[in-house]
Amino acid sequence: MSIVCIVGFDQSHSTIDDDLAAVVEIQNILERYNHKSDTIISGESPKFGVDIFTKIAAHEASFEFKGYPPTPNHRHWLCDDPNCYGYKNRNLDMAKDCTELYCIAYSREQHTYWNGGMWTMQEAEKLNKPAHLVIV
């Protein structure tokens, strides 16, 4: 049984072409796994993008899906409030919980844009988990 994490960019700066390319890559990733035994996880960011595309594609392909949404109205990287589940904590949890991780990023003029998914990918690598950067 695999727990596959798919993370990446939100829609704050992506184009429709980036979004469509990400959906195709997510579908390609899902085709490598078994919907009867594997689980897909992602962040459920309120900023949409790869997290939400993953959730939709996983449901459409009949995978079990587990989301890691940050606390509503606490969209900060790290929160001091014990009731807050900020991006950093949820990204660390996804890196710990997955058995393999894919980060989808987009590129412009030879520059790959950094996102929280890339940070999560680095954390998964520190835990010796297979991690893959997918550029669209």
Separation, N- and C-terminal Cα atoms:
28 Å
Described by strand count, sense and barrel closure, the largest sheet is:
5 strands, parallel
Shape, principal axes of CA atoms: globular
β-strand percent reads: 15-25%
Q: Give average pLDDT, whole number.
A: 89
Q: From the alpha carbons, calculate the radius of gyration and give it in angstroms.
A: 14 Å
N-to-C SSE series? EHEHEHEEEHE
Low-confidence blocks of residues: none
Number of strands: 7
Helix percent reads 25-40%
- Widest sheet: strand ordering: 3-2-1-4-7
What does this structure look like?
This protein has 136 residues and is an alpha/beta fold. It has four helices and seven strands, in the order βαβαβαβββαβ. The strands form two sheets. The chain has a five-stranded parallel β-sheet with strand order 3-2-1-4-7, with helices on both faces. It has a two-stranded antiparallel ribbon with strand order 5-6. Helix 1 (16-30) crosses helix 2 and helix 3 (87-97) packs across helix 4 (116-126). 35% of the residues are buried.
